[in-house]
Design a protein that fits this description.
2 copies of one chain form a homodimer. By secondary structure, chain A is of the alpha+beta class. The first copy, chain A, has 2 helices and 6 strands, in the order H-E-E-H-E-E-E-E. In chain A, strands 2-1-6-5-4-3 form a 6-stranded mixed sheet, with helices on one face. The longest helix of chain A is centred in the first third of the chain and has 18 residues. Chains A and B meet through strand 3, strand 4, strand 5 and strand 6 of A and strand 3, strand 4, strand 5 and strand 6 of B. Chains A, B: InterPro entries: NTF2 (IPR045875), NTF2-like_dom_sf (IPR032710), NTF2_dom (IPR002075), Nuclear_transport_factor_2_euk (IPR018222). Chains A, B: It is found in: Cytoplasm; Nucleus. Chains A, B: It comes from Lithohypha guttulata. Chains A, B: Has a role in nuclear-cytoplasmic transport of proteins and mRNAs.
């Protein structure tokens, strides 16, 4: 059986590949009890979440994962994942830093996203 | 009863106030099953975690929280918290961006940290 680090890495690879390829397909990774907080705005349920993600104001997007950390969640079999990275949209040359945090839970031989929080990160200044 | 947003805010306020004041006192917020991943390095248990935090190579530190998001965790009563912010150490004038992700769980009328992941965030570049 794969360990939580390997599962987290596979999940993250698949998630951003799907996001950058055809983000309507992300619906398969969420369930009715899934939560997304996207730049402070809360959404619940696969349909609402993917509607938000597909309506983001860009056509093309490319995520680059810089760091990925994982820990076992308190719920048996769950995994907490923290990603930092950069994303580029459409033809804007400047990447934006982001952070995203998932809790994924096992179900029917696979995993779905229970918690999902996304924030852009701006350079620190005094 | 306070809702999860209020509890998360109180936790975050208390956590960084304690960290910046006397970080040896953070030991009260962790338990033997707590996990910290600090810049990729894993630690388990209150003693190991606080030993790491107290041995960080600075005397003075000040955290500034820029964003705080919270969601109910999958485990009853737990809360997932995502913080982005900046920190300043000793007399270095330049703040550093960071992100920190907690899962806090209820116990004996209070909360303790089960999951904790910390990363510095560097400005995105192509």
């Amino acid at each position: 059986m794969a360990n939580f680090q390997d599962i987290a890495q596979q999940f993250v690879d698949f998630y951003y590949k799907t996001f950058d390829g055809d983000r309507t397909q992300l619906v398969a990774l969420y369930r009715p009890n899934s939560m997304l907080t996207f730049e402070k705005e809360p959404f619940q349920g696969a349909q609402n979440i993917v509607e938000k993600l597909t309506n983001l104001p860009f056509e093309k997007v490319q995520h680059r994962v810089d760091t990925m950390d994982a820990q076992p969640a308190s719920q048996e079999g769950g995994i907490v994942v923290l990603v930092t990275g950069a994303l580029m949209v459409d033809d804007q040359p400047q990447p934006m830093s982001y952070v995203q945090n998932f809790t994924i839970l096992p179900a029917e031989g696979s995993y779905y996203v229970f918690n999902d929080m996304f924030r852009l990160v701006y350079p620190a200044h005094g």
